[in-house]
Amino acid sequence: MKVLRIVIKCIADFFELYLPCLTFSMMFLAFVMQIVCRYLFNNPISWAFEFTTFCFVWTVLFSALYAKRTRSHVKFSIIYDMLSERAQLWVRLCGNILIVFTFIAAVYPSYDYIMFMGYKKSTILHIPYNILYFPFIIFLLGMIIRFSGDVISDLKKLRRQ
């Protein structure tokens, strides 16, 4: 059981830490290269914009998983903070259940559309769109797992009360 937890943590770290760092670094380097080539050499590179766009999408989706794991995403909780602890539990539980079911409902249509987009390739790099946008499926599945864990935790707290 301990080995399984270590393996799951390594996989989560890969997708939530290392891959976003890599895609952000690549995006930044391509962005700098684009500026240098355009303004220093007066010879813009055409692939850099497309590449930075795709790296940005990957960075945002995978980083959002890490933000959920560490609970470091932005929250607007003025009204939520004024509620009692029990009311906060119910609001959090209902919201998380809503998110889980919405993301579950979005998995198949998103997967179907992304696989359908495999016939189309990016204009300059000629990378199939299903490869470029597949991280959205990983994002959905990761969020379903994370929010389901929160639902289970809140249900245990509710049961104790």
What report would you give on this structure?
This protein is 81% helix and 0% strand. With 161 residues, it is an all-alpha fold. Helix 1 (2-39) runs antiparallel to helix 2 (47-70) and helix 2 (47-70) packs parallel to helix 6. The radius of gyration is 20 Å and the shape is elongated. The protein starts with a helix and ends with a helix. The model has no long low-confidence stretch (mean pLDDT 92).
What are the key terms here?
161 residues, mainly alpha, 81% helix
Helix and strand string, N-terminal first?
Answer: HHHHHH
Radius of gyration: 20 Å
**Outline:** elongated
Structural class per helix/strand content? mainly alpha
Report the sheet with the most strands, covering strand number, pairing sense and barrel closure: none
User: What proportion of the residues is helical, as a percent range?
Assistant: over 70%
